[in-house]
Structures are given as structure tokens and as C-alpha cells.
Write a structure and sequence with these properties.
globular; 2 strands
Length: about 130
């Protein structure tokens, strides 16, 4: 569980550090206030997951699996709907489409494997309290 807590702490820090940057979400690239709002919501979710893992909360097990499914679906939709031209406009650099596809597929595979690990760890999430505090 310590490794899983560390991983979601890393996800929280990674998400929080992207505040103010353009964010791809469900096939569109958001900038400005909408992007900041998405980062805040995702950071709060990651923080909840981190605390829930540390408290071994049963509800967190379900939220972890749902969050990971959502992340895989979001990544797939972004990969299919956001063109390299759109990305190049946002970042002002040439985008290697094959590298982009390979890295996104790698991320999806990693999240699916992580979800399989979390699924098998259900017994460790024994705290049935609905509240973290």
C-alpha cells in the first residue's frame, strides 16, 4: 500500500504542477480558467485517492478503479480526436505523432496494469467508513 500511496502522491504533484498549462480533456485542449479548473478538480481527486489509500478506505478502492477507467478513456479520446496540428498550435513546436501515439498507448497499458493490481488488493481496503476524517 505504501508504493500505491507514493504513486498517487506523484500523480497529485504532477497534476498540481500543470496548473496554468493547456490541458487536453475529452478530445479538446483547454487553456486559461477552464484548464485551471480542470487541474484543481483533478488535484482534489488525486489528493482524495492518496488519503483514501493511506486510510485503507473501501470506497477509495471503487473510486481508484473508476478514476483509472476514466483516465484510460480520456487518453484514448484525446489520442483519437486531438490532431497534431492542434497540438502544434498550442505548444508552438513540431509534434512527433508516432512518439505521441506510442507514449499514450504506453500510459494506457500502465494504467490498465495498475488497475489490475488495485483490483487484486481489495482485501487491504478494509476501512468501511464513508468519511476520510
Amino acid at each position: 500500500m505504501t508504493l500505491l500511496s507514493g504513486l498517487y502522491l506523484f500523480f497529485f504533484l504532477l497534476t498540481a504542477s500543470s496548473y496554468g498549462q493547456p490541458i487536453p480533456f475529452m478530445g479538446a485542449i483547454y487553456q486559461g480558467t477552464p484548464a485551471q479548473a480542470l487541474v484543481i478538480v483533478d488535484s482534489v481527486i488525486c489528493l482524495y485517492l492518496l488519503l483514501g489509500i493511506m486510510k485503507c478506505q473501501r470506497l477509495t478502492w471503487y473510486v481508484l478503479l473508476g478514476y483509472n477507467v476514466f483516465e484510460v478513456v480520456n487518453t484514448l479520446i484525446n489520442l483519437l480526436l486531438i490532431t497534431s496540428t492542434e497540438l502544434e498550435k498550442v505548444i508552438d513546436e513540431k509534434v512527433d505523432i508516432s512518439g505521441l501515439v506510442a507514449s499514450n498507448i504506453g500510459v494506457m497499458v500502465a494504467i490498465i496494469l495498475l488497475s489490475g493490481f488495485i483490483f487484486r488488493q481489495r482485501g487491504y481496503f478494509s476501512n468501511r467508513s464513508k468519511y476520510l476524517f
